[in-house]
Amino acid sequence: MRLDVLTIFPEYLEPLNVSLVGKARAAGRLDVRVHDLRQWTHDRHHTVDDTPYGGGPGMVMKPEPWGEALDDITASGEGEPVLVVPTPSGRPFTQELAAELSGKPWLVFAPARYEGIDRRVIEEYRGRYDVREISIGDYVLAGGEAPVLVMVEAVARLLPGVLGNAASHGDDSFAPGEMADLLEGPVYTKPPEWRGHQVPDVLISGHHGRIRRWRRDEALRRTALHRPDLIERCDPGCWDRHDRSTLAALGWAEGPDGRFGRTPPAVEE
Ligand code: JAH
Fold first, then answer.
1. Which of 87, 93, 109, 152 to mutate to test the pocket of ligand 1 (most atoms within 8 A of CB)?
2. Where are the domains of the chain?
3. What digits encode the pLDDT tens for the residues 115-164?
4. The CATH number of the domain covering residues in 2-166
5. What SS3 class is residue 85?
6. Distance 193 CA to ligand 1 centre (A)
7. Residue 37: which of 77, 72, 82 has the closest Cα?
């Protein structure tokens, strides 16, 4: 997979040289190229921003450097890249999207600074490439570089041969229920007692059926506590008999459609 990143802070992308992504590159699974957007400016001050039309605070990134840079970068390879633009107003980045992007041969990331990039750049490349405006979460950063690091790590670890991944990642026995329906429960390793805290007996019991059920119940508890939206969105087929009784014990009410809700169904007059 080829990855290009076009940024005014190329040094921010240094972490791509280390750890998992660095190893994927060393192993020849990833070809990462980081470019300084200012190389595509022509004035003495390497200007990349200007004041917003219509007024208001902050600055907007000028279209010309982005256009020239993206034209050069996209002409330097074969085929059409997916252009990824991190923005808080984008579609959510999910494990599903990471998996989809991991199947693409070429990603070009365009992290902005200031108040963002002149809209016409997105319009221009929408007509030519698959453009994805993506948000990694509901908060505002100073720019899109940190989201690029996040997305590249999520994508790179799915590439065949990167994380000890088998040839295909589709039928993962490898990533058990990775981001399936529930959050993962707690994990433990040796020693069995640490500073007076015990590893739960069931995990040491050797009763594999009970261990499986305990882990499922812990996953349900954690999900109900931290991500009730995931419980509510699950269709009735998600839950086995034991799940239903665990959720009921956690104070969840089963509606007539078999879905669970935090508030008990309204009582008829
Ligand atoms: C901030 C350009 N979803 C997280 C996220 C992504 C991008 C940005 N902020 C937050 C951002 C300023 C300029 C992009």
1. 87
2. 2-166, 193-261
3. 999 999 999 999 999 999 999 999 999 999 999 999 999 999 999 988 77
4. 3.40.1280.10
5. strand
6. 44
7. 72
